[in-house]
């Protein structure tokens, strides 16, 4: 029975992971460019501090979209997206290890005109330690500031008992 339950959980996890694909350029219609840059990653990934940034984008009926993972060794992603239709943008961080896990992100909707060049700078805000306590997404079109959006962090602290 336990093996059956484990198999069902693994199957469900595989199906859910397979639902989100890489972001691909639209095959027709007007386009705009979106660049996402995550700043202030922890300098080194380790077992006690793993950080992944995620950029998810989709149109209203989710017939187009996908997700891109951003890490400290590849913090920038640029892609052509459909112009002239409202898209949902989600930029967030998932962090964990060493007795804690944390997440912080922002979600917004926007319609880009054809030929637009949107730059999303997603800054991770830290206090004294490695934990991310907040995040800020700043949107630019060229050099023009469009807006700044703040996200709050949700941190779960674990008490870890070392067993060996």
From TrEMBL:
PROSITE patterns: PROKAR_LIPOPROTEIN (PS51257). Keywords: Signal. Residues 1-25 form the signal peptide. This is Lipoprotein. It comes from Pseudodesulfovibrio karagichevae.
